[in-house]
Design a protein that fits this description.
The active site is at 24, 153. With 297 residues, the protein is an alpha+beta fold. It has helices at 84-96, 118-133, 140-150, 154-157, 196-201, 216-222, 228-234, 237-246, 270-283, and strands at residues 17-34, 40-60, 65-70, 101-107, 163-167, 171-174, 184-189, 251-256, 263-267, 288-293. The structure holds 4-diphosphocytidyl-2-C-methyl-D-erythritol and adenosine-5'-triphosphate.
Length: 297
């Protein structure tokens, strides 16, 4: 199959391999302490959407990593060495000690720096994609080490299933919760990017207690996103998003994800989801809205 970039002079040795970089959502995010290393100790229930960015890869034998980016948010992102897809590919090359190459096309559907881990999901999807493309088997522990070096959220994004995440992100445990699998979910971003480091720096350092993930009811009633206040101080429009989501019919939960500014809402039915999406789009045509479901574990 010809490569989509006609100008790219790379001898393609394989048919393309595709991976989806599933959007990450923190159903609850409790910040417990600031650690000595500057990171924060978290307890968070991660779920993943069925949708996200798309990575397509072709193997080459020239050792080069060639990234092209398209999609609705492609123009906002550089394809240079700092891109997390390129960094993931370089990390895997260094681990293998071999210079296998690849051309990767990233279709950027998720807003950048928006609390749904787009960059982290891309990095994890690149690791999965290249492991398939280069037909390599990596020990799970080694893979998670490579992933954590790329970002705190990247290890959880490797399997992209519902899990409890602790530490700065280095400890994960699969954690099924009745009612979450395939639950209708709306993601809304008001078009502002917020810096994760800046939001953590604004945390008031008050430990409001552990996360109880025993049921969806408890997660809704007792769960929190402890970064909400700090993110709201940077981007007050997040308050408008949360108010609008919470006011929708048949909403189970409306909360901010990660360090913001994306907020999510869980609904009792696909019908309620569709109605809410329509209402949000009508009232705020400039906001990014994604109708999806929670990916089953
Ligand atoms: C807020 C979350 O999205 C929740 O899922 C993550 O904890 C952030 O994960 P991430 O984007 O992969 O973050 P990283 O790229 O590792 O870190 C970006 C910056 O966020 C801050 N950071 C991140 C994670 C963490 N547990 N404590 C922190 O204080 C640090 O200042 C760090 O320099
Ligand atoms: N492929 C990529 N996609 C998105 N961002 C990337 C990518 N590569 C590098 N970055 C950089 O990483 C930073 C964080 O991006 P990302 O979209 O993962 O943030 P986020 O959604 O806020 O993450 P989190 O949910 O972990 O807080 C951005 O500032 C962006 O410039």
């Amino acid at each position: 199959m010809p490569h989509p970039d006609a100008g790219l002079d790379v001898d393609m040795l394989t048919t393309p391999v595709t991976e989806i970089a599933y959007a990450k959502v923190n159903v609850a995010l409790h910040v417990r302490a600031r650690r000595e290393d500057g990171y924060h100790a978290l307890e968070s229930l991660f779920v993943f959407a069925e949708d996200g960015d798309r990575l397509q890869g072709w193997a080459s034998d020239d050792g080069a990593i060639h990234l092209t980016i398209d999609g609705p948010f492609g123009a906002t992102l550089d394809a240079g060495p700092d891109n997390l897809v390129v960094r993931a590919a370089r990390a895997l090359q260094a681990y293998l000690g071999e210079q296998r190459g690849a051309a990767i096309r990233l279709t950027k559907n998720l807003p950048v720096a928006s609390g749904i881990g787009g960059g982290s999901a891309d990095a994890a999807a690149a690791l999965r994609l290249l492991a398939r493309l280069w037909i390599v088997r990596i020990d799970d522990g080694e893979l998670m080490g490579l992933a954590l070096d790329l970002g705190s959220d990247v290890p959880a994004c490797v399997p992209s299933v519902t899990q409890m995440v602790m530490g700065r992100g280095e400890r994960q445990a699969r954690h099924a919760v009745d009612g979450l699998d395939a639950c209708s979910m709306l993601l809304v971003n008001p078009g502002v990017g917020v810096s994760t480091a800046q939001v953590f720096a604004g945390w008031d350092r008050v430990d409001r207690g552990p996360l109880d993930g025993s049921s969806l009811g408890v997660l809704c009633a007792m769960g929190r996103n402890d970064l909400e206040a700090a993110a709201l101080a940077i981007a007050p429009v997040i308050g408008d998003v949360l108010a609008m989501l919470a006011a929708q019919e048949d909403v189970l939960l409306a909360r901010m994800s990660g360090s913001g500014a994306t907020c999510f809402a869980l609904f009792r039915s696909d019908r309620a989801l569709a109605a809410a999406a329509q209402a949000v789009r009508r009232a705020n045509p400039g906001w990014w809205v994604m109708e999806t479901r929670i990916r089953s574990a």
